[in-house]
Amino acid sequence: MFPKYDVIVVGAGHSGCEAAVAAANLGSKVLLVTMNMNTIAQMSCNPAMGGVAKGQIVREVDALGGYSGIVTDHTMVQFRMLNRSKGPAMWSPRAQSDRMLFAAKWRKMLEDHPNIDFWQEMVTGLVVKDGMVKGVQTGMGIEIESHTVVLTNGTFLNGLIHIGEKQFGGGRAGEKAATGITAQLVELGFESGRMKTGTPPRVDGRSLDWEAMELQPGDENPSKFSFTDTPTIKKQLPCHITYTSQEVHDLLKTGFDRSPMFNGRIRGLGPRYCPSIEDKIERFAERDRHQLFVEPEGWDTCEIYVNGFSSSLPEDVQFKALRKVRGFENMKMFRPGYAIEYDFFPPTQLKVNLETRLIKNLFFAGQINGTTGYEEAACQGLMAGTNAHLAVNEEEPLVLKRSEAYIGVLIDDLVNKGTKEPYRMFTSRAEYRILLRQDNADLRLTPIAQKLGVKGAEERMEKVNEKKEAAKEIEKFLRNMSVTQDDLNGYLESKGSALLKQQVKIGGVLLRPHINLKELREVLPALNEFLSKHNPEHINEAEIRMKYEGYIQKEKEMVDKMNRLEQVRLSEEFDYRELNSLSAEAREKLMQLKPRTIGQASRISGVSPSDISVLLVHMGR
């Protein structure tokens, strides 16, 4: 009935979809198995992609040939570039998506791929022989053979939904949980744990008083995620902002005795940086209000997502409290918020290519590894699918360095440090964030996709080379163009910047704080005439490179130092217990994680700088 597949992907959420595409675009024959074909790429929580650090990840996924950015560009209802008041290392794209269009577009792109087959059923176990995965077993007892398997089970492994004192099995509202896999993996020697996440109520937009809330429109000149020729949004839907109050908090507190979070029924740890409304009231008792983002679910629906009101309180308490929020006085609810508890597997059980240490050719990606967020899941899926294909073809795995991508930071953190709470990406986690900007993801990563042979990478590289050459041409012009006091002193005075005393190059003026090309174009006709011939993205790239040249160079020097440690390889067969000079904790951690390089060893929690010195001395360094 089934051929033997190169890669079987279990689960069709954001991680599973990217895993399937990554392997298929490299030439593997892929089977995508999901419990429900109608919920492929479902946005289970908020209908948005990107955000601080997450937007960088989506652009990186796109640069490597993934589809998340393309799908978002085709289905967004609003676009905003966050943190524009800060430096470009902090700029982060975010888009509100049409929930239904997003899932439909993903499904169409998957179905259009000749290398991807589908099967709708629950996978209840793996076929494992001699320490190697050989396929999967389904609930109907069907065995499907494959060379590799990627598990992307999301919140479905023994999922348990909580609403007040009610609890029932499920991986998402209206969908059953997945069973069997956890028990088998534990039997095989894996360590598992429990985590929880939550989602807010959905409400009827027709019942809200929009005039009572603050308007939050999209950007005046919206951008996009993909580096390909996807459409730029022409019309946008607004979001709105409102606030809770002390009265709302007091009403919510009446349900705390029935809250599964406070009475111990939820054992899993929730996300620190996306707490429920009851958690916020408890942890930030000094605050008398919290911000709520009122977000549309799509173009053709009145369903509204109440971002910031995630809750597992009883539905009647949620309803009464929400009706006391400004603009929600006559609110009608579609469904209450809920918490969901699910199994995960501590990611220190993985190699840096996301293959498990215990079972060869078995890969984990997404929330099964303890992460939270569509973007974090998508990038893991892309890496796991890529490495599954490479494993089938007995090629070297793809491992991105911390200096190459936020994806590299995320995987390095997970594998070397693990996580005891849902892991979320932030710009602060990346020590080289000036190098890892959202605007240069294509320059950083598309050459890697081309080298791997990802479908479509050749055409993408043409765009990358065009961007490089155009940025160089713009930089050259700016460094050579001269301006006089008469040209610029009026503008500089208005900006509170020192006046020119002689003729200078415009490139030097650009280095000053609060000076930018957009404003310089308005006062320098010759500059505007030259730049009007260029793509805004290319102009932006040249401006950033010139303005932050010194900082970029310093980070590159730091990367060079770290890369020396990354080039010192460690054998997976080495017995660290024989090195008595290492601390006991270092010996234990190094034996457990078997780092590939000295650089990786240096980032393992519990391995000190003196332990690294011992290793270097032992290796004659």
Task: Provide structural commentary.
- The chain is of the alpha+beta class and 621 residues long.
- 36% of the residues lie in helices and 18% in strands.
- Among the domains are: 202-337, Elongation Factor Tu (Ef-tu), domain 3; 464-551, Arc Repressor Mutant, subunit A (Orthogonal Bundle), CATH 1.10.10; 567-618, GidA associated domain, C-terminal subdomain (DNA polymerase, domain 1).
- The chain contains 21 helices and 22 strands.
- The protein is globular and about 80 Å long.
- The mean pLDDT is 93.
Under the CATH scheme, which architecture of the domain at 202-337 would be assigned? Beta Barrel
How many helices does DSSP assign?
21
CATH classification class of the domain at 202-337: Mainly Beta
Report the CATH topology name of the domain at 202-337. Answer: Elongation Factor Tu (Ef-tu), domain 3
Question: How would you describe the shape?
Answer: globular
Binned, the helix content reads 25-40%
β-strand percent reads 15-25%
Secondary structure class reads alpha+beta
